[in-house]
Specification:
The complex is a heterotrimer of chains A (218), B (49) and C (246).
Chain A lengths: L1 H12 L5 H19 L3 H22 L3 H8 L2 H7 L4 H30 L5 H28 L6 H11 L1 H16 L4 H30 L1
Helix pairs in contact in A: 1-6, 2-3, 2-6, 3-6, 3-7, 3-9, 6-7, 6-10, 7-8, 7-9, 7-10, 9-10
Chain B lengths: L7 H41 L1
Chain C lengths: L12 H32 L14 H28 L2 H33 L7 H22 L3 H29 L6 H4 L2 H6 L1 H44 L1
Helix pairs in contact in C: 1-8, 2-3, 2-5, 2-8, 3-4, 3-5, 3-8, 4-5
Classes of the chains: A mainly alpha (218), B mainly alpha (49), C mainly alpha (246).
Function (chain A): Required for the export of heme to the periplasm for the biogenesis of c-type cytochromes.
Keywords (chain A): Cell inner membrane, Cell membrane, Cytochrome c-type biogenesis, Membrane, Transmembrane, Transmembrane helix, Transport
GO molecular function (chain A): heme transmembrane transporter activity
């Protein structure tokens, strides 16, 4: 499992792996927002947590279709299916690698991008915390969507359609934590709920992902 | 017609749009049912011929 | 000759076709009768509400369609589970057949809800938790139908959509609570809620019951008819494959 994880991380970081792409996409989305709504801090600051969460969510989505597709093309996925590691473990490792190469860097970059949108000072920390807690759920849900669409020729668009509605709870709780953090309000309940969503995803979704993979590989 | 008062447009729109959607669903169901049945009958005919 | 009769014997496609053929016209007629009686009763012969005026008549469409929007998904969930556990093809096809009916019901509930909201809330769309939940349910239906449409092999499609339906159900419930958390509602529940009217008086309640019965029967009739079509389409597909091979 650890070796699948480190192999996937290494593949993604290597040139052409798409490691930097999602970060660059995140940056571009954030830069474009002021062009859309105007440069006043009074407008930007209140929507900054939501925009940053949305941007991170969409950036996560970008790299999902390559989670299984490359392994499927060169036959590595069939080998993984017959490997001694259970397919559930493979699913978890794949999601972990996706998180390490997208969720983690996005979470760490978000506070700096928040400066661009004029997010008030205490918000930066909570934005990063909310993303760190929430993005694993995004990676796990996305990996499940990728497993559903791995056998399809043009799965990318369908993948977005399947995955985005599943992102609703994570987005609601995550953006709420970031918003309350910026406004200096108590953020215990949404943070706990966000953690619960992520924990539930870690516990249950690898089984669904593995089930979908078994069908797709049949 | 009952007197719908000042909300005539809203009530009319709700009933009209719902009728369009439901009648459309029934029509599509019947149309596809007929088409598939005809095609299946033709295929069975070819097989038995 | 098998004499033991169980519910599962209806899962055989041939038996299903034979059983539903005589049933379908009666069901359809009953559904049409209930809908006509209920809606005409509700539209023409109920008084206006003292507060909502004639917009109260919209509940005869809104409440039954909203009920069926959720129940259709629930039926798909049960059918998906039966397919995953017992591998009955009729079950998988029934889930597939129910999705377009469910999505239409969701759309009717959304449209009537928005139209009802326009004079009550002064806007066509408010991010009311319940309306929002139905919008999310609508997206779930779209994804489910898109996955069915995208996969060629019918058994693979049935398997993957069933898994999606299971996971989607969990997330749909989760979204419902998340949406409640996100926006407790601009409008204090009962005073403007449609549900209050159900408890008010029999003049509204009885035609509403007839309409609900009509929508349930319509749903059953449509799902049966569409499942029959799916079974035929599958047989046709198999025959065409055999023709091509020969």
């Amino acid at each position: 499992m650890i070796r699948i994880l480190s192999r996937d991380v290494a593949l993604a970081v290597r040139a052409g792996g798409g490691f930097g792409l999602s970060l660059a996409f995140f940056l571009i989305v954030v830069v474009l927002v002021p062009f859309g709504v105007g440069p006043e801090t009074a407008v930007l600051a209140p929507i900054a947590p939501g925009i940053l969460w949305l941007g991170a969510l969409l950036a996560c989505l970008l790299s999902l279709d390559r989670v299984f597709a490359l392994d499927r093309e060169d036959g590595a996925l069939d080998l993984l299916a017959t490997a001694p590691v259970p397919l559930e473990g493979v699913a978890l490792a794949k999601a972990g690698a996706h998180w390490l190469t997208t969720g983690l860097p996005l979470s760490l970059a978000a506070p700096f991008l928040a400066v661009l949108l004029g997010l008030p000072a205490p918000g930066h920390l909570w934005l990063a915390v909310s993303l760190l807690v929430g993005t694993p759920a995004l990676s796990l849900i996305g990996t499940f969507g990728a497993a559903l669409t791995v056998g399809l020729k043009r799965g990318g668009l369908l993948l977005s359609l399947l995955v985005l509605p599943l992102y609703v709870p994570t987005l609601i709780f995550g953006a709420d934590v970031a918003r309350r953090g910026a406004e200096g309000l108590a953020l215990g309940p949404p943070l706990a709920l966000l953690g619960a969503v992520t924990a539930g995803c870690v516990a249950l979704l690898p089984f669904a992902t593995a089930a979908a993979l078994r069908v797709s590989l049949r | 017609m009952p007197d719908l008062g000042k909300y005539a447009v809203e009530v009319g729109a709700a009933y009209g749009l719902s009728a369009v959607l439901i009648v459309g669903l029934v029509a599509v169901t019947l149309w596809r049912g007929k088409r598939v049945k005809r095609a299946l009958d033709a295929a069975e005919g070819r097989r038995n011929a | 000759m098998q004499t033991e009769m169980s519910l599962w014997s209806y899962a055989n496609p041939t038996r299903f076709m034979a059983t539903t053929r005589p049933l379908l016209p009666w069901l359809s007629a009953l559904a049409a009768a209930c809908l006509v009686v209920g809606l005409v009763w509700g539209f023409f012969f109920t008084p206006d509400d003292y507060r909502q005026g004639s917009t109260v008549k919209i509940i005869y469409l809104h409440v039954p369609s909203a009920l069926m929007a959720i129940n259709a998904w629930f039926m798909m969930l049960v059918a998906s589970l039966i397919w995953l556990i017992r591998r009955h093809h009729v079950s998988a096809l029934a889930a597939k057949a129910a999705a377009p009916v469910g999505v239409t019901m969701t759309l009717v509930a959304l449209v009537t809800g928005a139209v009802w909201g326009s004079p009550m809330w002064g806007t066509w769309w408010a991010w009311d938790p319940r309306l929002t939940s139905f919008l999310i349910l609508f997206l779930f239906y779209l994804g489910y139908m898109a996955l069915w449409a995208a996969i060629e092999d019918p058994d693979t499609a049935a398997d993957l959509t069933s898994v999606l339906c299971l996971v989607g159900s969990v997330f749909a419930v989760l979204s419902r609570y998340a949406v409640n958390f996100w926006n407790q509602g601009l409008h204090q529940g009962a005073s403007l809620s449609l549900d209050k009217e159900e408890n008010v008086a029999d003049v509204f309640y009885i035609p509403l019951l007839v309409c609900i019965a009509g929508f349930v029967l319509l749903f059953v009739a449509l799902v049966l008819a569409r499942t029959r079509t799916e079974i035929r389409a599958r047989r046709l597909h198999a025959l065409q494959l055999r023709e091509r091979m020969a």
